[in-house]
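Q: Make up one entry.
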Amino acid sequence: MSGAPERPVRVVVCDDQMLVRTGLVTIIGAQPDMEVAGECADGRAAVDLARKERPDVVVMDVRMPVLDGIEATRLLAGSGVRDPVKVLVVTTFNLDEYVYEALRAGASGFLLKDAPPDRLLHGIRTVASGAALLDPEVTRQLVGRYASRIRPSEDGGDREVPLTPRELEVLRLIADGLSNSEIAAALVISQETVKTFVSRILSKLQLRDRVQAVVYAYRRGLVS
């Protein structure tokens, strides 16, 4: 006996370029498992619309009038937000310096604007499921590219991190962009054990997902 059909993923699209926004809305709206809950052209409107519609995912541009995408993301998903909304930030190659700030602001992931439609749709589904869209290759290419510009917090350092040596080792490998299977191979442990370590790390550090774990590691100067 088949169960009830799953509710479609509700998406709000925010981009100040009408052509881009229309394209995103068209692609998303054509999916049988998605529906567009609304669209807007600036960050302030995105915050208001998301708070009203409570979508599963907000697809957020970075550079917009009135309020930029990073600040809008912080208001919707940042630390201290009681009922955060999942945000998928889209950016372009010449804006990748903003990616780190977007992740710090609470974004669940990011994509490049020239990504093919299937990658966009995969990203939306991934973020809606509660996972982080920060695959190892993207971590290496983008986060690693400007990691040297990320200044560790003044009170950072291993002493401040409430993790066991093994958990700290796993955290560093996550920040280096390794997948669970790669971590398992590097440490000669099972993938299930890696998942357990990742869960413990997120719980101990009160982090939402792997994206926040990467940001935490860079801010604490645990990777270079």
Q: What stands out?
A: The first helix runs from residue 18 to 29. The first strand starts at residue 9 and ends at 14. The radius of gyration is 18 Å.
